[in-house]
Design a protein that fits this description.
Elements lengths: L3 H15 L4 E6 L10 H8 L4 E7 L2 E6 L3 E6 L4 E6 L11 E7 L4 E6 L5 E6 H8 L14 H8 L6 H6 L9 H11 L12 H20 L40 E5 L2 E5 L23
Antiparallel strand pairs: 1-6, 2-3, 3-4, 4-8, 5-7, 6-7, 9-10
Helix pairs in contact: 1-7, 4-7, 6-7
The structure holds a DNA duplex (16 and 16 nucleotides).
Length: about 290
DNA sequence: CGCGCAACCTGTCTGC
DNA sequence: TGCAGACAGGTTGCGC
């Protein structure tokens, strides 16, 4: 599924191709795509605009247009964005939901089997409002540090897996990279987020960053639907340390990887290497237990 | 407020 | 072979 590394891969491929291009037309074939706004409104807002550049925020792809408007797209689970050049083959796409026709004859196709994907247009202020309180820190920015991770996790009782999936804390991590980050950090997915101490925070910080960078380096993970902007598969799925590896030997200790369900999501981990932390007592309470 | 879970969707896989 | 049911998981919204 498209998570931060997949969206970033697409962004890096599309930015040099789309930058400076003008939008001839945005054709929305599935009205669900622009919901709750009517397709004409979204299409009208971008028509004739020039694309100044592509950015990413969490799993959202942002096309900055001249005039200050921003075309925002989210691939959700099965969405794909493929750029088709005039010279390229024009095979008809299944599940085509929207397409952006550009002034050089190329076409950006948004396909999506499950129709969860969406697109909308906002100005800078609208975007800030929209993301306010819902999208947290960018994990590949300088702002993301072990200290900041500690602040986000402090007092949280939710399992680490759920904590990582919460976009309001750290933006961009999905089911795949949450598992990979936790394995790299040697932390059990059911450990309460607030149970981490200094070394755990350091380890998880590094685990998150390394897992995401690996994902980008390998061009994203194609378990089933994901393709990059050229239509090609990524190869991160061949580099998974634990995700989808149920029953296979841990690369570190050989113990069979286990699959459990956390927060309704398949979760893969090594039961031997990933330490399960106990909930930490809140500071300043009762008397400390004598340790035998 | 924090947390867990259902709902939104539909293609694909599994078992009878 | 056909078909019902489970399963996939990003985000929102609701109930406790």
């Amino acid at each position: 599924m498209p998570e931060l590394p997949e969206v970033e891969t697409i962004r890096r491929q599309l930015d040099p191709e789309l930058r400076g291009r003008a939008i001839r037309e945005l054709e929305i074939l599935d009205p669900r795509w622009s919901r709750p706004l009517p397709p004409e409104q979204v299409a009208g807002a971008v028509q004739g605009r020039r694309i100044n550049g592509l950015e990413r925020r969490g799993k959202y792809l942002l096309l900055r247009l001249d005039g200050g408007q921003i075309l925002v797209m989210h691939l959700r689970m099965t969405g794909n964005l493929v750029l088709v050049t005039p010279e390229g083959e024009q095979r008809s796409e299944r599940f085509l939901r929207a397409r952006l026709l550009l002034d050089d004859g190329s076409e950006l196709r948004f396909t999506d089997a499950r129709r969860f994907g969406e697109g909308f247009v906002l100005d800078e202020r609208g975007l800030e409002e929209r993301f306010q309180g819902r999208l947290g820190v960018e994990p590949l920015s300088e702002e993301f540090t072990p200290e900041q991770l500690g602040e986000l996790a402090a007092g949280r009782t939710a399992p680490l897996k759920s904590f990582l999936l919460n976009q309001a804390g750290i933006a961009g991590i999905g089911n795949i990279y949450a598992d990979e980050a936790l394995f790299r950090a040697r932390l059990h997915p059911l450990s309460p987020a607030g149970s981490m101490r200094e070394p755990h925070l350091e380890a998880l910080h590094e685990g998150v960053v390394e897992a995401l960078l690996a994902g980008i380096e390998w061009g994203g993970a194609s378990i089933d639907d994901y393709r990059d902007a050229t239509g090609a598969e990524g190869s991160m799925q061949d580099e998974f340390l634990v995700h989808t590896r149920e029953g296979k030997p841990c690369f570190v200790c050989g113990t069979p990887i286990r699959r459990i369900v956390v927060g309704g999501r398949s979760t893969y981990f090594c039961p031997h290497d990933q330490v399960r932390l106990r909930r930490r007592r809140r500071a300043g309470r009762k008397k400390p237990r004598a340790r035998p």
